[in-house]
Amino acid sequence: MRDYLILRRHAFQDDAALERAASRSIRVCNEEMLDRVRWIRTYVCEEEDGTLGSVCILQAVDGEAVHEHARRAALACDAVLPICRTVIIDEGGVR
Fold first, then answer.
1. Do 57 and 42 form a contact (C-beta atoms < 8 A)?
2. How far apart are CA 65 and CA 89, in angstroms?
3. Which of 2, 3, 9, 88 lies in disulfide reach of 83, CB 3.0 to 4.6 Å?
4. pLDDT (0 to 100) of residue 17
5. What is the pLDDT of residue 91?
């Protein structure tokens, strides 16, 4: 599996909508696409208009699996980008 960054702009009206979407996402990952998509983490962003957006990190077999997950979970999917490397900054500097 490969890591992907998924951008969801203006995707949620409020925290309740975000929680419902997260529940759908978990169900799809665990019940329908267990061997194809794994949800790693999500960063929630407050958009200028007061809605919520997110940047999600998923592991998937390919980009089409990410799009399929979004369709099945009824999630926005504005951009899907394969992650090519991770930069870690710690006391020893950048690795």
1. yes
2. 31
3. 3
4. 95
5. 77
Six token digits for residue 11: 């995707």
14-57 per-position pLDDT tens digit: 999 999 999 999 999 999 999 999 999 999 999 999 999 999 99
Give the span between the Cα atoms of 58 and 83, in whole angstroms: 10
CATH topology of domain 2-94: Alpha-Beta Plaits (3.30.70)
Q: How many CB atoms lie within 10 A of CB 8?
A: 22
Rg, C-alpha atoms of the chain: 14
Instruction: Please give the structure tokens belonging to residue 24.
Output: 């759908």
Strand 93-94 relative to strand 89-90: parallel, antiparallel, unpaired? Answer: antiparallel
DSSP 81-95: EE------EETTEE-
Q: Does the predicted TM-score (pTM) go above 0.85?
A: yes
